[in-house]
Amino acid sequence: MDNMLGRAKKAEAYLKKAGKLTEKCLKKYIPKEKEIPSTLHSAMRYALLAGGKRLRPALAQASYELFGGKQSESINLAMSALEMLHTFSLIHDDLPCMDDDDFRRGKPTTHKVYGEATAVLAGDALCIYAFELIAQTKNVAVVKELAHSLGTKGMIGGQVIDTESEGKPVDLATVDYIHYHKTAALIEASLVIGALLARATKKELSCIREFGKGIGLVFQIIDDILDIESSTEELGKDVGSDLKNGKATYPAVLGLAASKQKALELYNKSLKHLENLKNKNTETLKNIAALIIARTH
Predict the structure, then answer these.
(1) CATH number for 176
(2) How sure is the predictor about 297, in pLDDT bands with cuts at 50, 70 and 90?
(3) Structural domain count of the chain
(4) CA dist 134 to 128, 164, 257, 264, Å?
């Protein structure tokens, strides 16, 4: 446990550094508020620049560095696109027709400030603008990977099953499906995109993909647990909404203790995939994995 917490602390320093770079890139690429349509740009910037862990860009950068990538415009574009897509998903997730949440990252949600219509359009615009950026990497495999992680075989597919499962008894297979597609798919894609941009081999891509699947699910299990055990002040978003909305979650199906055990098993299994990356320094990814399972917010 001490080793895990030590790794998590190192990861926090890495995420802080990666977060500063991401913030710098986002401010460079995102349209200025004064540009027409200014209200839409204001809403996009409000949601995008509200802080957060910037985990997905950090994972892309760590994977890129792992396979020998040097800082470039392509990885900056990818990191920015990933954060824009994550923010797009949060804006839509918070809407009254979805989870109906009032707070995100310690601030009122986008629809609470700008209204539902502008919030929907701000999310749409961030999604589209992200693909405008990722296309500039001129890497078709990267664009395909990102699109796949978001579509009916990814985030949106997971969101549909999540919505359809509200208030219904579900089994573990359904929860696994929802959380892999809704959450883990974009985390997995972040790692794969970094590896693709660094020209990793097919075998290396397979290892990093499996690692991403594992820690992506760990991330969501911990999220489910924190929704029960944490507070709105600690998380910066509404807690207890999963229970209120009858969401399909790991604790709802397995209970808290078994959910924590499942997270630990997936964490250990994901690290095994990193061991297959011979002659690679995987310390940064191991540290981030420890942070994901040990996080409190």
Answers:
(1) 1.10.600.10
(2) low
(3) 1
(4) 10, 31, 41, 34
